[in-house]
Model the fold of this input.
Amino acid sequence: MIRLLYRILLYLHPPAFRRQFAAGMLWIFDETSDVAAWILLADALASLARQWLLRSGLWKLLAAGAGGLLQITLGGLGLFFVRHLHSLTPARLEPAFQPADLARLMYLAVWVTGAVVCSVLALALWVKNFTGRRIHHDA
Done:
């Protein structure tokens, strides 16, 4: 049963990885004890995540999206606090925070986030196409 799970995990790896390493990994798995087999099963699961995320370049897209969201969040909060800094003085009795301001800020954040996501996706697809043509040309 555990060997079947291990083979399924090997099958889920990218094809190039399977062609190069699956036979050796399966041989090592068959030569180990039952305790080590569970460790190898966990290692195959970690390898599966690593191969699809890191080797595919998806991590670049995720990192770019996270960086864009961080930039939007920090920029939006900075704009919000600078705009309402004057209302933090004791002389003003009205609240510094108005619901309409939050709605405008959220509306802006949604549009800017959408623009950043579309830009990152377009750039990622362009880079993938460019490198794919370059690799094909070099081969």
Remarks:
- The two ends are 41 Å apart (CA to CA).
- The longest helix spans residues 99-138.
